[in-house]
Amino acid sequence: MPSIYAAFTRQMQRFSVDSFTIMLLIVVTLASIAPASGATAVAFGHVTTIAIGLLFFLHGAKLSREALVEGLTHWRLHVLVLCSTFVLFPILGLLIKPLALAMLTPDLYLGVLFLCALPSTVQSSIAFTSMARGNVAAAVCSASASNFVGIFITPLLVGLLVARTSSAGGSSLDSVLSIVEQLLLPFIAGQLLRPWIGRWVDRHKPMLKIVDQGSILLVVYTAFSDAVNEGLWHKVSLGTLAGILVISALLLALALGIATLVSRRLGFSKEDEITIVFCGSKKSLASGVPMAKVLFAPTSLGMIILPLMLFHQLQLMVCAVLAQRFARRKSAT
Question: What is the DSSP string of 223-278?
Answer without folding.
Answer: HHHHHHHTTHHHH--HHHHHHHHHHHHHHHHHHHHHHHHHHHHTT--HHHHHHHHH
